[in-house]
């Protein structure tokens, strides 16, 4: 099948693979704990990588922490900040990834009060709703930058400013934003930002946090003191070098946004059956197009389209066959929520792929 599921994961770019390969078997040292060449070489590779990533975000190298991926980053940011603090009020949204929502569910069990903001009719979180939800005991706000099911973008610039003024910590899951939004243009970053390598043409199992150094994070695990004690464990040098190499791809990724936008328009114009568009027209990244198809049940829907690899809304819901919580939050019935296709595009997508997709969906779903 032709791959249209780049929001689920991406292939490792050749340059990224090339950069990481020497660190498997030639430069295989243990960073930080060895008093010899091998350890120093590994440490140098890690610190060079840290510097490269931090400079992309315009922060200091010490503001980068390496983790196993965005799930761990989200957990460490939220739980690590709230650990040992007096229990107060937290704000997130009903359309966050499970790697944030489940954390808040746990916090709520622990006695924190949690407000879940609901999206507007276009599936976006409104800053004015957030402003209204803030209380005097609001401790932390977590809102994702780009929604993984719809591609809708949250106004994190305004929220960062708002949180700074209100003295509230702002965490944002930027997993789907990096490589799609141009971070070199942004002045206001969240206090805590999570991201993952495998969504930006790097390997699976590596991610990171960018954090404001005024924010006191506490570790969730204990060990050999790596990452200044925040995330102990022998550092996966090859993964870290690969993650840094992904940031060399940013010009390529950002340059391709315009091409991807023309593909999005072509797809939406080309589909000639009945569908509901779940992605905002002008407040979303063009890489993610979510449509729901009324009157075809989801099993039948997926039986009809074996030649394309698309997602049914969210990778982590794929096995459970439960309607996606994001589609439900937008207001869809269970049936419509289940009959959702998430088409996600990349700089690797060719115009001929897009043409095939349009013809194929028209034929298989709309009998045209
Ligand atoms: N957050 C968002 C928005 C995602 O899209 C994903 C990917 O599924 C994750 C978190 C989880 O990332 P990881 O696979 O790196 O743990």
From TrEMBL:
- What InterPro entries is this protein classified in? Aminotrans_V_dom, Cysteine_dSase, PyrdxlP-dep_Trfase, PyrdxlP-dep_Trfase_major, PyrdxlP-dep_Trfase_small
Task: Specify whether Iron-sulfur is a keyword of the entry.
Answer: yes
Question: Cofactors per UniProt?
Answer: pyridoxal 5'-phosphate
Quickly give the catalysed reaction: (sulfur carrier)-H + L-cysteine = (sulfur carrier)-SH + L-alanine
Sorted UniProt keywords? Iron, Iron-sulfur, Metal-binding, Pyridoxal phosphate, Transferase
Where does the source fall among the domains of life? Bacteria
Q: Which residues form the Aminotransferase class V domain?
A: 2-357
Q: Which family does it belong to?
A: Belongs to the class-V pyridoxal-phosphate-dependent aminotransferase family. NifS/IscS subfamily.
UniProt-recorded name of the protein: Cysteine desulfurase family protein
- Species, as recorded: Aquirufa echingensis
């Amino acid at each position: 099948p032709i791959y249209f599921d780049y929001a689920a994961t991406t292939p490792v770019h050749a340059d990224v693979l090339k950069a990481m390969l020497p660190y498997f078997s030639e430069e295989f040292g243990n960073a930080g704990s060895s008093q010899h060449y091998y350890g120093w070489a590994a440490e140098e590779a890690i610190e060079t990588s840290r510097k490269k990533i931090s400079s992309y975000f315009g922060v200091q190298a010490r503001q980068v922490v390496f983790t196993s991926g965005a799930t761990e980053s989200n957990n460490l940011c939220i739980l690590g900040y709230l650990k040992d603090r007096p229990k107060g009020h937290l704000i997130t949204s009903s359309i966050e990834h499970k790697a944030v929502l489940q954390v808040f569910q746990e916090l709520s069990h622990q006695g924190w009060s949690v407000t879940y903001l609901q999206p507007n009719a276009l599936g976006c979180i409104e800053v004015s709703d957030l402003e209204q939800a803030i209380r005097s005991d609001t401790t932390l706000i977590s809102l994702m930058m780009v929604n993984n099911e719809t591609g809708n973008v949250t106004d994190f610039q305004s929220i960062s400013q708002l949180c700074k003024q209100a003295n509230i910590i702002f965490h944002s899951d930027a997993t789907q934003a990096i490589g799609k939004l141009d971070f070199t243009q942004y002045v206001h970053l969240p206090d805590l930002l999570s991201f993952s390598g495998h969504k930006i043409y790097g390997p699976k199992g590596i991610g990171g946090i960018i954090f404001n150094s005024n924010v006191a994070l506490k570790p969730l695990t204990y060990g050999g003191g790596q990452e200044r004690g925040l995330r102990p464990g022998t550092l996966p040098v090859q993964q870290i070098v690969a993650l840094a190499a992904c940031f060399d791809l940013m010009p390529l990724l950002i340059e391709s946004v315009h091409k991807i936008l023309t593909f999005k328009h072509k797809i939406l114009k080309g589909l000639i059956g009945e569908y509901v568009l779940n992605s905002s027209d002008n407040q979303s990244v063009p890489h993610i197009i979510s449509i729901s198809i009324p009157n075809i049940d989801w099993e039948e829907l997926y039986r009809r389209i074996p030649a394309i690899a698309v997602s049914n809304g969210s990778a982590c819901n794929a096995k459970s066959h439960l309607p996606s919580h994001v589609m439900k939050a937008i207001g869809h019935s269970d049936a419509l929520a289940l009959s959702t296709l998430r088409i996600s595009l990349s700089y690797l997508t060719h115009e001929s792929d897009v043409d095939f997709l349009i013809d194929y969906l028209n034929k298989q779903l709309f009998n045209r």
